[in-house]
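hey team, just a heads up i'm posting the complex here instead of the shared drive bc the drive is being weird again. everything in one block, sequence lines first with there labels, then the predicted structure for the whole assembly after. its four chains so it's a bit long, scroll down
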Amino acid sequence: MADSCIAARLSHFLALTEEEASALARLEENPRDYRRGEMIGEQGAPADELFIIRSGWAYSHISFDGERRQILRLEFPGDLMGTSSIAFGKASDNLTAVTDCTLCPLDRPALRQLFIDHCRLAALLFVISQAERVSMDDRLASIGRSSAKSRIAALLLDILVRFRIMHGEDLDRVEIPMTQEEIGDATGLTPVHVNRMLQELSRDELISRKKNEVHILDEVGLVELAEYINRYADVDTSWLPPPEA
Amino acid sequence: MADSCIAARLSHFLALTEEEASALARLEENPRDYRRGEMIGEQGAPADELFIIRSGWAYSHISFDGERRQILRLEFPGDLMGTSSIAFGKASDNLTAVTDCTLCPLDRPALRQLFIDHCRLAALLFVISQAERVSMDDRLASIGRSSAKSRIAALLLDILVRFRIMHGEDLDRVEIPMTQEEIGDATGLTPVHVNRMLQELSRDELISRKKNEVHILDEVGLVELAEYINRYADVDTSWLPPPEA
DNA sequence: CGGCTACTTGACCGGTATCAATGTTAGTGG
DNA sequence: CCACTAACATTGATACCGGTCAAGTAGCCG
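-- predicted structure starts here --
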């Protein structure tokens, strides 16, 4: 099987059949490249594509009066982006490339076919989307009810934990290619204050930084500070329909 | 057919086949009553039920150290609560009755069977969960990036717009049976500040209040202040798999 | 009537935003 | 290789929004 990002991602939750893996691989036939900072999709534009990230980072965000904006989700290799446009004809958010990245567009008919042919994968996508929703719940709680320092800690942990899905459990450092302004847009803070909080986290010896790389020194301390709950650890796939053989 | 809450809800989005409707009807169990303030489900508890609200208000919330908490979603009649427990064995949030209310519990194992037998319904649930996610996106943006007054305005508008679905488009006043502390838990504010902002909205003649009833005086002004986007436009289900019959 | 609970009001404080200046790094063209 | 530039990161000074604390008021229900 040619390397399919989405298959690699899903197989962390479930042992895929040969059939399923190749159906997924077929979704990724026409990769498209975007440059750092390039806008992939725009709020309000008619959208009948989803994207699977093959490489690079992207994020979805809502912007207000042109200045303020809120980053909603960071999207990593293997993630399925733009799923909100499944429910609406129009995109509800902007998609922007954080780094140069390669995406595999996938149109709604293809997804539909997947739902028909591979119910088990459909159910798995549903489960994953619930997990994402729960993690949005946690972000809402974090932004609504905790301090700037805790929010930054929560963001860092979320990135770390999600990277571990692809890179192994002993990962303790991540290259974060976002500007501090972007981190602020994700956490609801100003860039200046992001900077100060990162410094405080370093001073508290919870993390250390070199260039864009963040090294997690005291994960337990960070988890406590952020009141972080790792939701991906609890995903339950035992109830899914059986493989179709 | 005895009135099935969930079939009624889903048929707002899609014409159900006879087969599908009766499969849904089989999921239903006896309605259950809860009193104002009663906890319906608890964070971390094993959860194998979903609920459809037949009457009353409820909300889901996460609580932290016992004091602080964040209300995630307000749930009104017709809403499906507890879907995150489909993906996890355990509830990720608390469910509490705002008013006395009547709920229809749905059996989770039976819902699993539904995924196997009726992929189209599974896809529909997927779509609905995406729509909910988009509305969470808006709340995240509101809480992350706007002022206290705007957040209150956004909450009021959201309640109003969702009530209109059931009570008609010319509705301009809503009875809100929440305490100001609960409004604070929904918007990430303290009860004291909620009070001040409500008074400011009144002083600005955007709303007026009598007891718990809020009268929307200047909807355009509120929408502008909150930068509110009404997402409850038609959900697009045109791409779903065809009925199986 | 008393004792809740929720709402209201005022005084004050602190965390975060804002504004502004400086330092640092990467890229670009000569 | 260096000068120039443009982002981005860092630092400091100050302002303000919303939090905290505390006291008082108004309903409501026994």
